[in-house]
Amino acid sequence: MLTINYFASLREELGSGGETLTLPEQVTDVARLIDHLVQTKGESWSALKDSSRVLIAVDQVIVDRGHRLHGTEEVAFFPPMTGG
Description:
This protein is an alpha+beta fold. It has a single domain (2-78), classed as Ubiquitin-like (UB roll) (Roll). It contains two helices and five strands, in the order E-H-E-H-E-E-E. The radius of gyration is 12 Å and the shape is globular.
């Protein structure tokens, strides 16, 4: 099972803090995961496609959308953080 977490403003925007998902066979990377989420959950989830608003981590390491998935990872979507 793939564990997906949504943090900060994304949690509020999407109305979900997370979920578990059996990775469909055609979903082989993060970009396809995002496409799958948009297709199954609705167009409002297309916010995940905006790389200027959303960072992605797999097993707590920031990755790009081409990162391969095997189906047992933890995937986190979160907005870029700033601090001071």
